[in-house]
Write a structure and sequence with these properties.
Helix content is 16%, strand content 41%. The chain has 723 residues and is an alpha+beta fold. Among the domains are: 135 residues, no CATH class; 145 residues, no CATH class. 27% of the residues are buried.
Length: 723
């Protein structure tokens, strides 16, 4: 461009000062009229690209955050809307999801509403839920107006293998089929297991429903692992103002025993679990029959099935304590029919039973017991007492109430219920005012005390003490399941027992009318008895234990008397026995009376058994076998005085315990008979000379133990018969 000078006369304009300042804030210098105006230079291409990218990067996070905020708000809005409206659009997706995850069909009909966040729940007008575990039943649950509440944590734990726990389940009407097969498969096993969880080895546990409220319905329950089947009907009473409007009946069987139960309860009573340990107890009445056991409960509970709190009066009766207690996992002896009135209290896992009125057979007992169900195994503790325990009422516990399988045997051979000893532990103090032997021939034992302990299948009766006819009884016994055969051992001691006061059968006349050792009562034998017994055996019945027993027993009678009539009769002294019958019996002072016997492999052998008075010495020889029940006893009388008519031949007892045979040893009789015949051939009156006994008083110490050789010969074991 060419610049021309301004024409003359034309004034060149003065440049306008705009007050421009540079970046430092200082005024910019005036530009020369010949200097071109300042124009900003464009940045290099690399600088322009970096600036553009920085601007775009700044805009992008702002845009993404804005989108996330919008999406989050929309999600919150959808969730809030869903929670407010009850997620009605989730009905079909929920049905499909449950079917896909569990493999069971579910159908939700009618009104539907659910809540997933706070206190998750679902209500539906009608629901039909199929059975799981491959169990062939119409359905697991069909309910009208169902409301169910749960916790997400409980569902997560169920996936790990725990029992399915439901917070609350309410329905106007239900029809349920709860079935568990022997394989462990169960219709209620519908929660899919976590693949990382350990494999399921136990049967599927029963669902735990904390609060179950039903107006009416039918429940069919069958558990093949427990051998129980019940069909229950639930309904509400239509009577206005009733305190227990809820009613239920159940019929079925348990281990083959028929069951029929009726229950009445408060409308607010939880049916399965007690959710709050401090919740008030609500009225409950329960009655019915399980097998031969009949029960009636009137009281209050925290829940019908598994309340942590129970209080009330229980009346129960049955054919046997063992049969009634077995379903509860409690080990009690087999007994005659019983009746029990008791106050029952449950606090958590501990049951308390207090009874001042219990009868077992003819026995009258009391009890103050606690049963802890959370112990492993369960544990029974407390005290058992009473005015009278009849020994015969314990006979079923040892099989003594049934005849032996072999008709020629006496000892009980019914096998003990050995497995039941491992079902629980026990620690019970027993205090009885009287133990009755069940026969008028024996006086009862008074003030019996013992300590019963059961642990690890070992039953111990220790610290046994009692008063017996002015003396004492003490000892211990134990029964232990060890190895193939249970082991039994016992140690008993009688001290200073008044013999004829205890053994009333020794009194003359009818034992029922005997005065039991009173001063005016005369006995065939009297004195002070001291005895010890130590035995060990093994087996599953009384017969097996005694048939394998080893040990010994000793007894001694001091300060005693023996009827002269018995003495003469034992020696077959007819003349003197006839004299006693005519002029009356006179007691003879006992110089000694003792028995020392050993038991080896079930065979009792007499080492030394003697009764000695001034008239005769009586020796008992031989033995008996508990294994074959064979008897071989020999009573030898050695008269010390003159008798004009005596057979003087040993008396024998042989045969079996059930059919003993008393006889006279033939050798002595034949010798006297031969002598009588010989003398009678000379002169008939001379035949009586063969039966004259001049007596023998040459033994200075009849009570001393016999020589070893003679003792061994006299105490040879009783013959063994094939058992």
């Amino acid at each position: 461009m060419v610049l021309y000078p301004a024409p003359a006369g034309i004034v060149r304009p003065t440049p306008l000062r705009c007050g421009l300042r540079d970046a430092t804030g200082d005024p910019m210098p005036d530009q020369s009229p010949h200097t071109p105006p300042h124009r900003p230079q464009p940045p290099p291409p690399s600088q322009a690209t970096a600036s553009t990218k920085a601007t775009r990067a700044t805009k992008r996070p702002r845009s993404a955050g804005r989108k996330a905020l919008i999406a989050g708000g929309a999600l919150v809005g959808v969730v809030a809307l869903g929670e407010l409206t009850g997620w009605p659009f989730l009905r079909e997706p929920l049905e499909q999801q449950i079917h896909n995850r569990t493999g069971v069909d579910i159908q939700l009909d009618g009104r539907f509403r659910t809540r997933l966040l706070v206190s998750p729940m679902m209500s539906v007008e009608q629901i039909t839920l199929g059975a799981g575990g491959g169990v062939d039943v119409p359905h697991l649950l069909k309910a009208n107006n169902l409301v169910v509440q749960w916790r997400w944590g409980d569902l997560w734990r169920a996936r790990q293998g725990a029992a399915l726990r439901v917070k609350s389940l309410q329905a106007d009407r239900i029809d349920a089929h709860a079935v568990r097969l022997k394989s462990g498969a169960a219709s209620w096993d519908i929660v899919p297991r976590n693949t990382d969880a350990p494999p399921q080895t136990e049967p599927a546990p029963l669902p735990e429903i904390e609060r179950l409220v039903l107006r009416e319905g039918q429940v069919a329950f069958r558990d093949e692992t427990l051998d129980i089947e019940l069909n229950a009907t639930i309904e509400h009473s239509r009577e206005a103002g009733g305190t227990m409007p809820w009613q239920a009946t159940a019929e079925g069987s348990y281990r083959g025993a028929p069951i029929k139960l009726q229950a009445k309860a408060s409308a607010d009573l939880p049916l399965l679990l007690q959710t709050d340990a401090d919740a008030p107890l609500l009225p409950l009445q329960l009655s019915g029959r399980i097998g031969s056991t009949q029960l009636a409960f009137d009281g209050a509970a925290g829940a019908l099935w598994a309340g942590q709190g129970v209080e009330g009066q229980l009346k129960i009766s049955g054919d046997s304590l063992q049969a009634s207690a077995r379903p509860l996992g409690v080990t009690l002896p087999d007994t005659p029919p019983y009746q029990l009135n008791a106050r029952v209290v449950r606090q958590g896992a501990t049951w308390s039973v207090v009874s001042d009125e219990a009868t077992v057979g003819s026995s009258s007992l009391t009890a103050n017991l606690k049963f802890q169900t959370d112990a492993h195994p369960p544990r029974l503790t407390g005290e058992l007492g009473g005015a009278r325990l009849a020994l015969a009422d314990l006979a079923p516990a040892v099989g003594a109430d049934k005849p032996p399988r072999r008709s020629d045997r006496v000892l009980p051979d019914e096998r003990f219920d050995v497995p039941s000893l491992g079902q629980m532990d026990a620690d019970v103090q027993v205090k009885l005012r009287q133990l009755d032997f069940g026969t008028p021939a024996l006086a009862p034992v008074q003030d019996l005390k013992l300590h019963l302990q059961l642990a690890n299948s070992r039953l111990v009766l220790s610290a046994l003490s009692a008063r017996v006819a002015g003396g004492t009884l003490s000892g211990d016994t134990a029964f232990e399941v060890k190895g193939d055969l249970p082991q039994w051992d016992a140690a008993l001691r009688f001290s200073e027992v008044d013999l004829d006061s205890w053994i009333r059968g020794l009194s003359k006349g009818d034992a029922k009318d005997a005065k039991g050792g009173q001063p005016d009562a005369r006995s065939y034998m009297s004195g002070t008895l001291d005895a010890t017994a130590q035995l060990k055996g093994q087996g599953r019945s009384v017969a097996e234990i005694l048939g394998s027993a080893n040990g010994q027993f000793k007894l001694r009678v001091t300060h005693g008397q023996l009827s002269q009539l018995v003495t003469e009769a034992a020696g077959l002294d007819a003349a003197q026995a006839l004299g006693m019958l005519i002029k009356g019996d006179e007691p003879l002072k006992l110089n000694c009376a003792l028995v020392d016997a050993v038991v080896q492999n079930g065979v009792v052998k007499s080492r030394h058994a003697v009764l000695d008075n001034d008239d005769s010495t009586l020796r008992l020889q031989g033995g008996l076998s508990f294994k074959s029940e064979a008897i071989q006893l020999r009573l030898v009388s050695e008269p010390k005085d003159f008798s004009p008519l005596s057979l003087r031949s040993p008396v024998t007892v042989s045969g079996q315990l059930k059919t003993p045979q008393v006889g006279i040893e033939a050798g002595g009789l034949l010798a006297r008979a031969a002598g009588a015949l010989a003398l009678g051939s000379l002169a008939p009156p001379a035949a009586l000379l063969a039966f004259i006994d001049v007596g023998n008083n040459d033994d200075p110490a009849p009570c001393a133990p016999a020589p070893a050789a003679a003792s061994e010969k006299a105490t040879s074991p009783a013959p063994q018969k094939n058992s």
